[in-house]
Amino acid sequence: MNVSVQLHRELWTSFASQIRSYAAAHGLNSRHHAVVEVGSDLIILRVNTRWLRFTHSEMTEDNNRTEPFQINIDGTVTIGAVTEDMDFTAERLTRELMQ
Question: DSSP letters along 47-83, please?
Fold first, then answer.
């Protein structure tokens, strides 16, 4: 297996794990419970009637707004034109969805 394929799988799994962790943490102070569904090609974060869906190339919001999405080999995530650390992205998106 190609090293870059293995690395991307690990980063994908890490991003999903961070989404789960932040959803649980933010759920402690929320009226809502988050559900995170993870597959090899899809991550879905659901909170009440709101949701975010990630594929390897895009992020779609419940209002059907879609932006380019990419996990980078340096542990950052790019959504649209914004690149930030993976954990900051996971925390921010989870917090915003659970508000």
Answer: ETTEEEEE-SSEEEETT--EEEEEE-TTSEEEETTEE
User: How many CB atoms are located within 10 Å of the residue 31 CB?
Assistant: 7
Residue 10 exposure: Cα atoms within 13 Å on the Cβ side: 9
Cβ-proximal residues to 29 (8 Å cutoff; 6+ apart), any chain: none
d(CA 26, CA 15): 16
Model confidence, pTM? 0.93
Residue ranges per structural domain of the chain: 3-98
- Listed range (6-10, 14-18, 26-30, 38-42) with the worst mean pLDDT: 26-30
**pLDDT > 70 fraction of the chain, expressed in percent and rounded:** 97
Token pair 């932006």: residue: 67
Residue 69 · residue 58 · CB < 8 Å: yes
